[in-house]
């Protein structure tokens, strides 16, 4: 067994800033919508204003401009959808659909033996796709990826879908916050536990096993 402690999945994937930032503009939308007598236009304006202010703050603090532009674009798109339909709950429609797509994509990645959790962690660790040479890691990443499929994306689809269908705007704002970084943190913790439980005791963890060879790639 390796003498070095295994790295936790939370340590590798980093903090919760991105998920936390993404939950703030929806709160601004609901607040603006309520303050202006359930005006979708005011809610949309408030959400965009909050997103711009948050983006400026993050840039000043050294954040990546490209990531902030993408986040702002998502808020603007959500606001435009709500303005087009005139329904406040449609501000959350883009988020609902993105979670549907994520659930399907993650599930498909497991089926084709390219679990996305392994892809993400491999990129972060600089392993690229070399982790697939380790059958134990491939199996562990596949099992842990199911936690993301059902514990995060499918759960969001069910909650957001029911609230959107019934037009519960305030509840959608609350759910958008609760199911952001708290759920991400829980998903990372649970998937990390599942991942390590699937690995043999002597396995070094998320780093490639020393004896792994390039001709061990499953399905290559």
UniProtKB/TrEMBL annotation:
Top-level taxon in the UniProt lineage: Bacteria
TM regions (residue ranges): 40-60, 67-84, 104-125, 146-166, 178-199
Assigned keywords, A-Z: Membrane, Transmembrane, Transmembrane helix
Classification via Pfam families: DUF3159 (PF11361)
Annotated protein name in UniProt: DUF3159 domain-containing protein
Organism per entry: Amycolatopsis vancoresmycina DSM 44592
């Amino acid at each position: 067994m390796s003498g070095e402690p295994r790295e936790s999945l939370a340590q590798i994937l980093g903090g919760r800033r991105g998920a936390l930032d993404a939950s703030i503009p929806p709160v601004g939308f609901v607040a603006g919508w309520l303050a202006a007598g359930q005006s979708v236009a005011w809610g949309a304006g408030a959400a965009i204003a909050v997103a711009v202010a948050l983006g400026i703050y993050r840039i000043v603090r050294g954040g990546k401009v490209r990531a902030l532009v993408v986040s702002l674009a998502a808020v603007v798109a959500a606001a435009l959808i709500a303005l087009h339909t005139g329904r406040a709950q449609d501000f959350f429609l883009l988020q609902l659909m993105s979670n549907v797509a994520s659930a399907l994509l993650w599930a498909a990645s497991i089926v084709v033996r390219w679990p996305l959790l392994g892809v993400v962690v491999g990129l972060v660790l600089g392993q690229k796709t070399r982790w697939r040479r380790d059958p134990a890691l491939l199996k562990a990443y596949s099992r842990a990826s199911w936690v993301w499929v059902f514990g995060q994306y499918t759960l969001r689809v069910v909650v957001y879908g029911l609230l959107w269908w019934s037009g519960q705007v305030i509840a959608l704002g609350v759910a958008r916050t609760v199911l952001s970084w708290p759920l991400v943190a829980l998903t990372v913790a649970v998937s990390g536990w599942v991942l390590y439980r699937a690995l043999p005791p002597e396995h070094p963890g998320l780093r490639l096993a020393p004896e792994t060879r390039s001709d061990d790639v499953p399905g290559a």
